[in-house]
């Protein structure tokens, strides 16, 4: 009975009237809380870290154990820096999917209505989501890439093909992989904001990054050669590559700038959609 | 104060709300009545800046919702559709909302306590019952301690205990002088909680009136049941303009348009014996029919359907 009485006689509390207002720092804190308070987010981020740091180590170990079976060309061109950051091939999937989910998860559950009722100007929600997720991605990916860099160099030193972080391009590649993942994160938030639908957002992300190169590859070589450097993934990963297997690529920072351009287009699309469309 | 002026909202071809104008006055409970699909939720979404009206304006305390610097402190809302991420705990949901306004964690704990969710506050919302979800929605609405509350079908799907809880809460909130704008498709539910009524149907305003007025009007038009062995004579004696007499049994007449006093006096004057003379209580059903009888568009079968739904008993 006591428990029943407790819930049946509500006493609206007369608290000192709260006086806060909506500011960008407040919205940033809110988005920080939102990001970390979902189990799915924490797991996906853990997967991205394990992938970025762990996959390279695994690959390096396999390469070293099979070193004697590698051809002389392969040995000559072996790039332990590329191996060290290669975990992005897997990690990018987790980062991209989470980027889409950060926004489509709100639409699919209706949470977006609560978010927009609290922040009716709307765009601060988008900016805060982008800022928080980009910062988290950059830090996690940079740390993961540094960890895998040192472990991988330790592993490959058995065949004396290791590099140090001071070698030309080494630090740029390690930071570059974090930059690539960060901009990818932003791009995917943009896609999520445009499409508002998890399945559609993830499908578009996968199609843009991983299916387009496949389509390009079955086009006549002249067309493929002309087009492929400009595809999002190829442009974006220039900054995360130390040396290139395929000579047909954009200059490192040109490619990365183009990738940033793609992300910008997606974000602008998301911003327009958020402002114009009903929630 | 909420002001709706000439609001029209179209979703593609479908007109959800058409040229709606009304004011939710401060300090009282205003009921927003209409069948499902009448445009209540759309109107509320327009007020809350979630949907942009095709034309017209909606303002809260004189400003568009979008222009409120701290909306949660001015107006709290519970929407009919869930607006909570199912993967988050109740506490974290409220905390994330509170943080947008710099509202303290202490206040979050307070509203959780207030709605009786303390024991499950750390559990994921996905596992909540409908009633717990409604309580959490109300906690969110109260976070900023707003003077205006807008609640879309708050009693929907609740068990009797939950309905009683909502009713008490509304009573307390109203007693504190808050403005409450409450939608429902149940007339009986409204009669118990609202002072003023806004009635809409098919996106148009049908009535903007008080509950007391509706009941008074209905009482005036209520029927009188008479049992008499001289039914035929009484029928002739009472016949007149604005008087309707029907009969379900041989000795029973149901008279509308006259009070029981008028019927009794007429019977005495003609020397007619009455066995029973029973004034019928004004039913809300009658009240609603009288209220909306004039809206030609709703006379047809479709209207009766709507009315039946509107009048339904509270769960």
Describe this structure in words.
The complex is a heterodimer of chains A (279) and B (315). By secondary structure, chain A is mainly alpha-helical. Chain A has 13 helices and no strands. Chain A has helices spanning 2-8, 24-36, 39-65, 72-76, 80-85, 88-109, 111-118, 123-156, 170-195, 198-218, 221-227, 232-236, 252-276. Chain A is globular, with a radius of gyration of 23 Å. Chain A starts with a helix and ends with a helix. Residues 1-16 of chain A have low confidence and may be disordered. Chain B has 315 residues and is α/β, with parallel strands linked by helices. Helix content of chain B is 37%, strand content 25%. Chain B contains twelve helices and 13 strands. In chain B, the strands form three sheets. Chain B has a six-stranded mixed sheet, sandwiched between helices. In chain B, strands 11-12-10-13 form a four-stranded antiparallel sheet, with helices on one face. A three-stranded antiparallel sheet of chain B has the order 2-1-4, covered by helices on one side. The longest helix of chain B has 16 residues, at 160-175. The chains are: A mainly alpha (279), B alpha/beta (315). The interface between A and B is large, with 45 and 57 residues.
Instruction: Summarize the helix and strand pattern of chain A as letters.
Output: HHHHHHHHHHHHH
Uncertain segments of chain A: 1-16
The gross shape of chain A turns out to be globular
Largest sheet of chain B: 6 strands, mixed
How large is the share of residues in beta strands of chain A? under 5%
Structural class of the helices, strands and pairings of chain B?
Answer: alpha/beta
Counting H and I runs of at least 4 residues, what is the number of helices of chain B? 12
Compute the number of strand runs of chain A: 0
Through-space gap between termini of chain A: 42 Å
**Uncertain runs of chain B with pLDDT below 50, 5 residues or more?**
294-303
Average pLDDT score of chain B: 86
Query: How many β-strand stretches of chain B?
Result: 13
Task: Compute the CA-based radius of gyration of chain B.
Answer: 24 Å
The total count of helices of chain A amounts to 13
Structural class of chain A: mainly alpha
Oligomer: heterodimer
Largest interchain contact:
A-B, 45 and 57 residues
Q: Please trace the helix and strand order of chain B, writing H or E for each element.
A: EEEHEHEHHHEHEHEEHEHEEHEHH
Task: Provide the gyration radius of chain A in Å.
Answer: 23 Å
């Amino acid at each position: 009975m006591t428990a029943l009485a407790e819930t049946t006689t509500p006493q609206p509390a007369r608290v000192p009237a709260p006086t806060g207002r909506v500011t960008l720092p407040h919205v940033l804190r809110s988005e920080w809380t939102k990001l970390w308070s979902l189990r799915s987010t924490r797991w996906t981020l853990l997967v991205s870290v394990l992938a970025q740091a762990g996959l390279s180590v695994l690959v390096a170990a396999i390469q070293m154990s099979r070193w004697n079976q590698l051809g002389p060309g392969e040995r000559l061109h072996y790039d332990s820096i590329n191996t060290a950051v290669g975990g992005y091939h897997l990690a990018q999937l987790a980062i991209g999917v989470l980027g889409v989910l950060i926004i489509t998860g709100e639409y699919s559950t209706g949470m977006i209505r609560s978010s927009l009722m609290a922040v009716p100007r709307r765009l601060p929600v988008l900016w805060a989501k982008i800022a928080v997720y980009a910062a988290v991605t950059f830090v996690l990916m940079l740390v993961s890439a540094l960890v895998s860099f040192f472990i991988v160099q330790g592993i490959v030193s058995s065949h004396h093909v290791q590099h140090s972080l001071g070698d030309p391009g080494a630090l740029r590649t390690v930071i570059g992989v974090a930059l690539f993942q960060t901009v990818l994160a932003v791009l995917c938030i943009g896609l999520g904001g445009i499409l508002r639908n998890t399945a559609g957002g993830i499908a578009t992300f996968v199609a843009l990054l991983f299916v387009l190169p496949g389509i390009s590859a079955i086009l006549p070589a002249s067309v493929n050669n002309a087009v492929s450097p400009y595809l999002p993934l190829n442009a974006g990963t220039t900054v995360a590559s130390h040396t290139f297997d395929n000579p047909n690529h954009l200059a490192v920072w040109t490619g990365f700038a183009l990738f940033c351009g793609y992300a910008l287009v997606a974000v602008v699309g998301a911003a327009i959609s958020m402002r114009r469309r009903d929630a | 104060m909420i002001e709706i002026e000439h609001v029209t909202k179209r979703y593609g071809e479908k007109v959800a709300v058409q040229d709606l104008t009304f004011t939710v006055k401060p300090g009282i409970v205003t009921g927003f009545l209409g069948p499902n699909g009448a445009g209540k939720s759309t109107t509320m979404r327009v007020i809350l800046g979630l949907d942009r009206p095709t034309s017209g304006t909606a303002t809260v305390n004189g400003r568009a919702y979008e222009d409120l610097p701290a909306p949660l402190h001015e107006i709290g809302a519970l929407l009919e559709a869930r607006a909570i991420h199912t993967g988050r705990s109740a506490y974290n949901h409220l905390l994330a909302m509170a943080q947008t306004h710099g509202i303290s964690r202490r206040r979050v704990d307070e509203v959780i306590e207030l709605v009786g969710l303390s024991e499950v506050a750390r559990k994921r919302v996905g596992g909540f019952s409908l009633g717990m979800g409604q309580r959490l929605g109300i906690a969110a609405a109260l976070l900023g301690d707003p003077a205006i509350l807008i609640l879309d079908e708050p009693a929907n799907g609740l068990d009797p205990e939950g309905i009683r809880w909502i009713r008490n809460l509304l009573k307390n909130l109203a007693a504190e002088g808050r403005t409450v704008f409450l939608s429902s498709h149940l007339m009986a539910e409204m009669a118990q909680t609202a002072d003023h009524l806004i009635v809409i149907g098919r996106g148009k305003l049908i009535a903007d009136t008080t509950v007391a007025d509706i009941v008074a009007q209905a009482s005036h038009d209520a029927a009188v049941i008479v049992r008499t062995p001289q039914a035929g004579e009484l029928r002739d004696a009472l016949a007149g303009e604005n008087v309707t007499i029907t009969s379900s049994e041989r000795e029973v007449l149901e008279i509308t348009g006259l009070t029981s006093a008028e019927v009794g006096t007429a019977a005495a004057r003609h020397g007619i014996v009455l066995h029973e003379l029973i004034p019928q209580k004004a039913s809300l059903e009658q009240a609603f029919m009288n209220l909306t009888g004039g809206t030609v568009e709703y006379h047809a079968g479709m209207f009766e359907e709507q009315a039946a739904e509107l009048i339904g008993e509270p769960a």
